[in-house]
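Margin note from the TA: students keep mixing up input and output lines. Inputs are the sequences; the output is the structure of the whole complex. Example:
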Amino acid sequence: LPVVTEKDEL
Amino acid sequence: MNFFRLLGDLSHLASILILLHKIKTTRSCRGLSFKTQALYVAVFITRYLDLTYRWVSLYNFVMKLFFIGSSCATLYLMRYKYCPTHDPSIDTFKIEYLVGPCAILALIFNYKFSVSEVLWSFSIFLESVAILPQLFMLQRTGEAETITTHYLAALGIYRAFYIPNWIYRYFTEGVVDPIAIVAGIAQTGLYLDFFYVYFTKVMQGEKFELPA
C-alpha cells in the first residue's frame, strides 16, 4: 500500500 | 481535505478555544494538567518543524501556527498568570514514562530515518498519550468543571474524526498512513471511559463525577 509521502494533515 | 478531516480540525480548534475561554472566564487553571499542556507544546513543535521548509497550503500554515501559538500561550497562562490556581500536588503523572517509550517507538517506526521524520513519528506517538496526565488527574479528583469536560470531549472527538477521514482517503486516494492510524486509534481509545461519563452525565445536564 502506498504510504502518504507528502504530509498534509495536522 | 474531506468532510471528516474538516470536522476533526474544527473540533480541535474548538477544544483550544474552550480551554482558553475556561482559563480566562474562571481566571483559573484549576483541574487542568500542566504536564498534558506541556506535552502538547512538544507535540506541535516537533510535528510542525516542516513549517520552516515546506509549504502545504494557507489552511495548513495558519492552523499549524495557531496550534503552536495557542499551546504556548496556554502554558504561559498556567505557569505565570494563573500559577497560584494550579496545584502540582495532584498533577503527578510521570511524563518520563510517556516521552521515553515514544522516543524509542519513533526510532523504530518511522517512514525514513531522518531527523524530521523521526521527530514527526515521535509527535504522533506522543500526541496519542499526551492526555494521560490530564485523565489521571481527573481520576484522582473524581470530578471536573463542566467547561473542562467540554474541552476534553472536543479534544477527544478531534482524533476520532480522523479515523473515518483515513478510511475515506484510503478509498478515494488509495493512500494510508499506518503510523498515524495506529496512534490515532489508540488515542481515541484512551477517551472511551471519559466519553461514556460525558455522554451519559454531562450531556444530560448532570455534573461530571466519577463513581467512587
